[in-house]
Write a structure and sequence with these properties.
By secondary structure, the chain is of the alpha/beta class. The protein has a single domain, classed as Dihydrofolate Reductase, subunit A (3-Layer(aba) Sandwich). It has 4 helices and 12 strands, in the order βββαβαββαβαβββββ. The strands form 2 sheets. Strands 1, 4, 5, 6, 7, 8, 10, 11 and 12 form a 9-stranded mixed β-sheet that branches. The protein has a 3-stranded antiparallel β-sheet with strand order 3-2-9, with no helix packed on it.
Length: 169
């Protein structure tokens, strides 16, 4: 299982239920990496998608505590706890499974991830949702850093982090 996220300098990921910034090249690499695979997301993250519908060309596994929550689409599965999530993921290769947010889903599932693809935005926004700071976590190491890119007045680059200690999962 892997995580994929765009973060600012303080590891912020969103504000008021929205991304901090939309960078077309980053969105393209997100589609390329997760396309054809499985994405795990929370109900609130799903509601931020166009028409609140699951992403196409992927199996969408939506994690919610709400037993009444339902979603349209053949490519979507709703689960309510980690046991149901594990069962839903059983048929898929772990390298095809991507955790895509939001904050509580990242915090819950990051211990099960072996890799994190981070779009690091060299700017600080007024965020109210955050991804765990991997640079402060001894279980993670920066394995690869991409070239600096610019989108208007925003500089960013890709980072690939790998887990260096076992989680027992």
């Amino acid at each position: 299982m892997r995580a994929i996220v765009a973060v600012d300098e303080a590891w912020g990921i969103g504000r008021d239920g929205r991304l901090l910034i939309r960078i077309p090249a980053d969105q393209k690499q997100f589609r390329e990496k997760t396309g054809g695979g499985v994405v795990i997301l929370g109900r609130k993250t799903l509601q931020t998608f166009p028409k609140g519908e699951p992403l196409t060309d992927r199996v969408n596994v939506i994690l919610t505590r709400n037993p009444e929550f339902a979603v349209k689409g053949e490519n979507a599965v709703v689960v309510h706890n980690e046991q149901e999530l594990d069962e839903a993921l059983r048929p898929y290769a772990q390298d095809d499974v991507w955790v895509i947010g939001g904050e509580s889903v990242y915090r819950l599932l990051l211990p099960k991830c072996t890799e994190a693809i981070i779009t690091k935005i060299e700017r600080r926004y007024e965020a109210d949702a955050f991804f765990p700071d991997l640079s402060a976590d001894p279980a993670w190491r920066l394995a690869e850093e991409g070239e600096e890119q610019v989108y208007f007045d925003t500089t960013w680059h890709l980072e690939r982090w790998t887990r260096i200690t076992s989680t027992g999962n």
